[in-house]
Amino acid sequence: MKPTAVCRETDAEHGLGSVTVPPYVIGAVAVLTVNFISSKTDRRVIYMGLSALQMMVGYIMFLASTNTKVRYAADFIIATGPFNSGALCNAHVAANVIGDTARSSAIGTNVVFGNIGGLIATWAFLPFAGLNYPIGNGLNLAAQSLIAITIAGMFNWMKPDNKRREQRDVTVEIDGLSDEEIEKLDWRHPGFEWRLHSGFQDVLS
């Protein structure tokens, strides 16, 4: 789809690769930079939200303009978003479960839903809609808007839920349970807290 979307910007003197490769290079640099900052600041949710907002801006540019320079600039804005989200979402779901099996299942489920988006894209970017692809870009804008709303809702739910968990008496609630039963509690463990910022913690100790 990318070569078709930007083909207006090429001419006889420039190969198609000269305009299709740079957005991916910028995206690769962005994912390394943002995830490095994320690891240093010990935060993920805020960067996931910003990536969604960034992609919304890019798709609005695609839908609002037919100017090739504007649309090419939108390519760069959009390219940095999904690269970041792909890595940060996996990190976030992995940090909010306990145990290797649960962690593998969480990452696998996250990847499956991500791949469903690619499947839908094959039906959204249809030949008759080129070169502007209003259907595909409109669906992407709607998806990113939903992601931004979901992230905001998740953040506003996790914080008060953590406060409620802090008021529970962990010792009393797990009294009488075996080590195996405690381990199987996973996120239902009274001492578990949703990790908005911090990394892995041993809440079963």
TrEMBL record:
Regions crossing the membrane: 21-38, 45-64, 76-95, 107-126, 138-158
Location of the protein in the cell: Membrane
SUPFAM superfamilies found in the cross-reference section: MFS general substrate transporter
Gene Ontology cellular-component annotations: membrane
Keyword tags: Membrane, Transmembrane, Transmembrane helix, Transport
Topology relative to the membrane: Multi-pass membrane protein
GO molecular function (one): transmembrane transporter activity
Protein name in UniProt: Uncharacterized protein
Major location (coarse): membrane
InterPro entries the UniProt entry points to: MFS_trans_sf
UniProt entry tagged with the keyword Membrane: yes
Species of origin: Setomelanomma holmii
